[in-house]
Amino acid sequence: KAYVVAILGATGAVGTRMIEQLEQSTIPVKEIHLLASSRSAGKTLTFKGQPVTVEEATPDSFNGVDLVLASAGGAVSAKLLPEAVKRGAVCVDNTSHFRMDDSVPLVVPEVNPDALNHHNGIIADPNCSTIQMMMALEPVRRAFGLRRIIVSTYQAASGAGQSAINELEDEAQDYLAGKQMSARVLPVKGAARHYPLAFNLLPQIDVFEEDGYTHEEWKMIHETKKIMLGDKNSPAIKVTATCVRVPVPIAHGESVWFEVGAGNTPSADELRAVMAKFSGLVVQDDPAHQVYPQPINAAGSRATFVGRVRPDQETPGAYNLWVVADNLLKGAAWNAVQIAEELVARDLVRVPAGAAAKFC
Ligand code: A2P
Predict the structure, then answer these.
(1) What are the backbone dihedrals phi and psi of residue 307, each rounded to the nearest 5 degrees, phi first?
(2) For residue 36, how far is its CA from the centre of ligand 1 (angstroms)?
(3) Is the CB of 57 under 6 A from ligand 1?
(4) Which residue in 12, 149, 162, 342 is a FRET match for 329, CA 20 to 30 A apart?
């Protein structure tokens, strides 16, 4: 069986990588539709060496489509994915719009693939920062339990899209040329104030909530609970987060402090051993030889890299680690294509009867 696939947001930072990851995937593609805004309609991209004309995305773009990979922003997904589901297409959505919907599975294929079995036409790809943290901690959780997470992120500009990568490069050039840097995109598109990222750090990713946390931090807390425990509000794992944008183009880093299940005190070697066996996770942890994960090396790779694993010297059962992954690949496009591969393998590329009504 071969599938008609549409990529929504095909011209963006994640969309272009969805095309590339789909080209390299095991999914048999019969026909491809590359969809974006009217600004890109008529542009030519390629799929498996063949030219494909970009079309403006409208509800009717999904007629006859089996599978949609979407990364065109939350508002676009909110409007168009229910239309796609109504037309019988199964959608893997990289935006945050549907992630907390109880009828939408939120999936990291190495962690909770069985959540796919109960989909209603839309499956959500988790936040990039959440995905790589789940990759590092799920083997720990399975072997030793997991009670608490305190995470600080070091997030690349590309998480805010192609325009943020361009802005970082322009600012760096201006700074080195002794010119004034001008910011229009970061920290958040459409916000009242913008700040340069080059030679700087921005402790704001996404908008602020009333409680003083950013929405990115909120996502890491509740997505972790939904993925690991199946309940976005479960108190069984306590999570808190500080999310920071750093002047790196691609690949996020995270410093994670975590506490394993009560009474367990595995050694760092025991933690590394369970991590090394986990599919998709690569241990790079050799302080004696200065080996540890770095964004510059992780960019372009599907894997998640973990290192600096060490016990908290004063709190038995607590540990620190450092985890890095390409936010556009494992954090977005590859995780989405991997979900699609899993849907194909499980013969789940079909919308259950009556499911479309859940999103209309
Ligand atoms: P376009 O290139 O035509 O603006 P990024 O995350 O890198 O900013 O990319 C966003 C993606 O979402 C782009 O492919 C962009 O297309 C697409 N997009 C933005 N607005 C819309 C819209 N209203 N309908 C369809 N696609 C959209």
Answers:
(1) -160, -170
(2) 5
(3) yes
(4) 149
Measuring from atom 6 of ligand 1, which residue has the nearest CA?
Answer: 161
Domains of the chain: 3-126+333-359 (3.40.50.720), 130-327 (3.30.360.10)
- Give me the pLDDT at residue 267, please: 98
* Atom from ligand 1 closest to the CA of residue 163: 8
Question: Does 97 participate in catalysis according to the annotation?
Answer: no
Q: Which atom of ligand 1 is nearest to the CA of 36?
A: 26
pLDDT in tens, 295-338: 999 999 999 999 999 999 999 999 999 999 999 999 999 999 99
Residue 356 has pLDDT above 90, yes or no: no
Is the minimum distance from the CB of 158 to ligand 1 under 6 angstroms?
A: no
> Known catalytic residue: 33?
no
